[in-house]
């Protein structure tokens, strides 16, 4: 079975349980972090986007220069760079790193965070802009002739690019859980990204994404599904749960807790995906085989914040429960970022691949 394993890299050693120390861009740490993912057997790593964080284009270029086969999933928010320029920037980076790039498109949940970079559009407008933006980017990559365009958000004449991605276009990942996200993602996404909810709720979201794809005249099976978790493993299930509760105590002692927490947006601007995680937490801390929602509740679910807890065998089987629903990409990141990746490479990922080799997709 072709299931993609994706990690996440940052430029400094920090997390909800690890306060920042040292420079915000630590080249040695970034190099080692990327190499650890490659050594562990990950297919790609996500490079996130925040209004306070290092520029992802530079991060991807540096990490790619210190790895050989690892792919990069670059988070990108439409609206801050013209789509004609974005098409050239993305294509240039992909050419320079040997075709290892994909783009993760995020329209933006928070008005407050968008305004930090000068965007005062509302959320509905942001999704309409994303739709137009991706149409333009695709046309720039596909056209051999200069292009004219006049839309709601963009107007240009004679646009063209001499550079295109290695394979002609980049895989487009798309995040969101709102009706607007389903609508735009159903049209454009090669992979639609979800946060880690209980199995039943995840199945509902997969059905909504596939229905949107069909409404746009696409084969629903052509849209992959990504789901994100924060695995916490131990030698045994009991040991993993002991570690998990220690992590939760640290998160709670730090308040809202993540790096960049001082820049977090108001809870009133919480996206639909975050609210869905909090709704799951209200129904109970534990779901299905190993899903734990307490960290989402403790952090306000400002990001992918639900955990899978247990031994490597338990967590591997829990991940594959989602594959059985139709998930094609598993995105995982740790609370002890580098150490977790190294541990997963020894104990978790081999079991996931072993389970994959013995499973047949359902649905």
Please outline what is shown here.
44% of the residues lie in helices and 16% in strands. The longest helix is centred in the middle third of the chain and has 20 residues, at 123-142. The protein is built from 13 helices and 14 strands.
Q: Could you explain how this protein is built, in words?
A:
The strands form 3 sheets. Strands 1-2-3-4-7-8-9-14 form an 8-stranded parallel barrel, surrounded by 7 helices. Strands 10-13-12-11 form a 4-stranded mixed sheet, with helices on both faces. Strands 5-6 form a two-stranded antiparallel ribbon. The chain has 13 helices and 14 strands. About 2% of the residues have low confidence. With 363 residues, it is of the alpha/beta class.
Question: Into how many domains do the coordinates divide?
Answer: 1
**Total beta strands:** 14
The rounded distance between the terminal residues' Cα atoms is 14 Å
Strand content: 15-25%
Counting DSSP H or I runs of 4 or more residues, the number of helices is: 13
Low-confidence stretches: 256-263
- Tertiary shape: globular
* Classification by helices and strands: alpha/beta
**CATH homolog superfamily:** Luciferase-like domain
SSE order, as H and E? EHEHEHEHHEEEHEHEEHHEEHEHEHH
**Helix-residue proportion:** 40-55%
The level 1 CATH classification is: Alpha Beta
Q: At the third CATH level, what is the topology name?
A: TIM Barrel
Average residue pLDDT? 93
CATH architecture assignment = Alpha-Beta Barrel
Largest sheet: 8 strands, parallel, barrel
């Amino acid at each position: 079975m072709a299931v993609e394993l994706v990690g996440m890299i940052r430029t400094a050693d920090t997390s909800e349980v690890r306060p920042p120390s040292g420079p915000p861009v630590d080249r040695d740490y970034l190099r080692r972090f990327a190499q650890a993912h490659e050594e562990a057997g990950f297919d790609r790593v996500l490079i996130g986007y925040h209004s306070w964080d290092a520029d992802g284009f530079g991060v991807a270029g540096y990490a790619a220069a210190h790895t050989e086969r690892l792919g990069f999933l670059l988070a990108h928010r439409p609206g801050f760079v013209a789509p004609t320029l974005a098409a050239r920037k993305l294509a240039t980076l992909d050419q320079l790193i040997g075709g290892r790039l994909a783009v993760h498109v995020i329209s933006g949940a928070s008005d407050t965070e968008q305004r930090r970079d000068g965007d005062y559009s509302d959320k509905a407008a942001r999704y309409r802009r994303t739709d137009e933006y991706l149409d333009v980017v695709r046309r720039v990559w596909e056209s051999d002739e200069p292009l004219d365009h006049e839309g709601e958000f963009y107007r240009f004449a004679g646009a063209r690019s001499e550079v295109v991605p290695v394979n002609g276009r980049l895989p487009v990942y798309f995040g969101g859980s709102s009706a607007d996200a389903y609508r735009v993602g159903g049209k454009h996404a090669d992979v639609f990204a979800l946060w880690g909810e209980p199995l039943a709720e995840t199945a509902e979201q997969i059905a909504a994404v596939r229905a949107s794809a069909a409404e746009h005249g696409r084969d629903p099976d052509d849209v992959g599904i990504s789901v994100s978790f924060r695995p916490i493993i131990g030698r045994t299930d009991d040991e993993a749960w002991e570690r998990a509760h220690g992590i939760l105590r640290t998160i709670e002692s730090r308040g809202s807790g993540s790096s960049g927490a001082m820049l977090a947006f108001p809870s009133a601007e919480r996206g639909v995906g975050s609210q869905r995680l909090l709704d799951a937490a209200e129904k109970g801390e534990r779901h299905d085989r190993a899903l734990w929602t307490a960290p989402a509740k403790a952090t306000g679910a400002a990001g992918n914040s639900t955990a899978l807890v247990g031994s490597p065998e338990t967590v591997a089987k829990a991940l594959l429960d989602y594959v059985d629903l139709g998930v094609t990409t598993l995105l995982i990141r740790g609370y002890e970022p580098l150490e977790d990746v190294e541990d997963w490479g020894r104990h978790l990922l081999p079991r996931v691949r072993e389970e994959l080799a013995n499973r047949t997709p359902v649905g």
